[in-house]
Amino acid sequence: MGLGVSILLVAAGAILAWAVNADVSGVNIHTVGWILLVVGIVGAVLSMIFWSTWAGPGYWSRRRGPGYVDEGPPPY
User: Which of the listed ranges 16-25, 35-44, 49-58, 65-74 does the model predict with the highest average pLDDT?
Assistant: First the structure.
C-alpha cells in the first residue's frame, strides 16, 4: 500500500467516523470509519519506513567494493 492509498483511507475513515450521522442496519459506520483510519495510519507509517530505507536498484552491488582500481601504468 502506498502513501496515496494510506492518505485516502485516513480521509475516508475520518469522514465515516466523525462526519456521517446515518444509521445502517447490520453495519456500524463509525466502527468502519475507525478501522479505515487505523489501517490508513499504519499503512502510511510503514510506507514511510520502507520509503526511507529503499536505495534503488543496484545499490548493494555498488557498495561491495571498488569495481575498478587504477594502479598506474604497467611495469616495463
Answer: 35-44
Q: Find out whether 20 and 29 touch, Cβ atoms under 8 Å.
A: yes
Nearest 5°: CA angle at 30, between 27 and 31? Answer: 70
Alpha helices of the chain — where are they, by DSSP H? 3-14, 29-53, 59-63
Q: Which long-range contacts (CB under 8 A, 24 or more apart) does 62-66 make?
A: none
Do residues 34 and 9 lie in contact, with contact meaning Cβ atoms separated by under 8 Å? no
Alpha carbon distance 27, 32 (integer Å): 8
Domain ranges of the chain: 3-51
Evaluate if pTM is beyond 0.90.
no
